[in-house]
Amino acid sequence: MNLSQFDRAWLEFGMSVLLAGLLWLLWRNHRIRKGQIKLANEIESLMEAELVLGKSLALLAHHISAPFHYARSISGVLCERWDELDPTERRSTVHLLRDHLDELTDQFDRVLAWARTKTAGQSTLEPVAIGSFSETELGRLRPAATHKGVRLELALFRDDRGIFDSQAVSLVLQNLLSNALKYSTSGQTIFLEVSGKPGRAIRFVVRDEAGGIGPEELGHLFSGRNHLSKAGTAREKGSGIGLLLTQEVLLGLKSSLVAQSTPQSGSEFSFTVPIEPSPG
Description:
single chain; alpha+beta; Heat Shock Protein 90; five-stranded mixed beta sheet; three-stranded antiparallel beta sheet; about 15% strand; elongated
């Protein structure tokens, strides 16, 4: 078919318009797809933040229960026996109360710091002096242990430096140590053992001399079926989900919790965290 120059010009114009329309549709679909991806990422971030918030609140509730219980117990003694106590006893009791309140504040700060770094997606790896870190973690328990008459012992088989997530490890240790204290009685001892291959891994063991855990209960310890908390030897209460939360935190450290226990002989909880060698 022979087309005139005029018809040919209109045909070329129509093809150009069609091509421009197709390009516009492709650009529009690309923008929509980009917006969908951005929206999906924002929703995922919000869900992750909500998950971190939920875990943080659960950790906070679990970690403050022990110092709150002891602070409440000591304040009750002060209220009921103030006139019976001499000035020295009053002073020492008030100091003990302050120690528990300091521990309560410290637990708040550490859980919130962990939540902030996780929500922001920041790295929490840092060089840590393992010996002083272990002494500090065991020392956090000292006011409550003194109140119950329980001894604390640190067996340090290494004193080097390593790079690891000290915030997360601290949360795990405080949960295990507070659980050990919860079920211990006056005159018993809680042990924290620290070992492992320098520059490669660090192993923490928390061992107590309490009543122990039966085989059936031990088998369901991390299954979620055994989440009802037992009262401690001084009627301490707990959330009942501390070990489940601890196991979740350890998964983020590429580790897991190992539990061993014999009724009437005590329990042992251990975990190993991979570390990087720290310069200097």
